[in-house]
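> tool_call: predict_assembly(chains=two)
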Amino acid sequence: MPPILTVFERSPDRGRGLARDMRVRWALEEAGQRYEVRTVSFEAMKQAPHRARNPFGQIPSFEDGDLVLFESGAIVLHLARRHAGLLPVESVARERAVMWMFAALNTVEPPIVEREAAGYSERDRPWQAEHLAMLDARVRVRLDELSRHLVGRDWLERDFSAGDLLMVSVLQRLGGTGLLDHTPALLDYIARGTARPAYRRAFDAQRAQFERATVP
Amino acid sequence: MPPILTVFERSPDRGRGLARDMRVRWALEEAGQRYEVRTVSFEAMKQAPHRARNPFGQIPSFEDGDLVLFESGAIVLHLARRHAGLLPVESVARERAVMWMFAALNTVEPPIVEREAAGYSERDRPWQAEHLAMLDARVRVRLDELSRHLVGRDWLERDFSAGDLLMVSVLQRLGGTGLLDHTPALLDYIARGTARPAYRRAFDAQRAQFERATVP
């Protein structure tokens, strides 16, 4: 039996590929693995059956036989260790690729998600613009640092890895904010990632799910 | 040669064990491994020699022969895979422990760090109290979810693992905020973690470093 990935029935990003199941779909496609999908509504996501898979009531979760995992980073790492194509074989290079997975999720993503959250949760506050300017400055520090690291490189290390997969997907959340305009190296990097055939297949699959859920 | 851990010369938490090198020290002590320490000042942390170890100019970094790593989560995972005592041997349990490492760093820590950042960066804004109340509500959602998961358990899964090590260290950042008062299960959980002899040794080592740096 193929593994089961639990995803939004109807992603709040309207199929733009920003929900966290996209990372797992992309990893599965890079690894050439089939999978099945279970959809959950926003209500079901917070109820007991899904909380048994993920106590935080989030997507994605992943089931493969006895193994039940949540956290997109953990699922991508599980797949990357099990299948070729997402981590180098040589041990130092492999550890460095895993390091970039953590950097994407614990250093680069948090200020980006924070900025996004302020965008909707503070919409009716008179101080939103002032706060967003502070958050933008924090995001820019990370973008500049990452951009300097990528000078003269196609990927974070020599070869594409699960670290790039997560980093590209984190940076994509900034689409439409204008924050990437000052770091063309990051725009090129995102373009290299999203041009991969595995990315396209994953993107099309999540888009098709959104479209199925919104048929009139 | 023992590995080298780069830490703050003088931690901004004044030796309370909240800097991210503490996680790595704790993991090294659980694994029974010796290590050496290199200290960096706030200025040196942002300059080229340290940026070569970590492009984001943060601590900790870790060097062991050919291997240079940054990101506390990645370093802890590296140690946990290499030495006994931090991950179960059986494969499903092992994957679940790694999953909790990601949950600590990508689901639980971000709103906690955000709240902390608002505490100092918005100190002179008239809207700080209103914003902190919003952030507190977000942190409480995660604390309640985690607390429900811990009912009847000593650790996140059956045995103590690197997932607990990171989760306890993330929750400790809430000390003094009052946010843990409504989740006694989490206070007990933190107390279990910090009572471990390996934690105490790591704590004492980082405290001694702070004291050495502040000798009059």
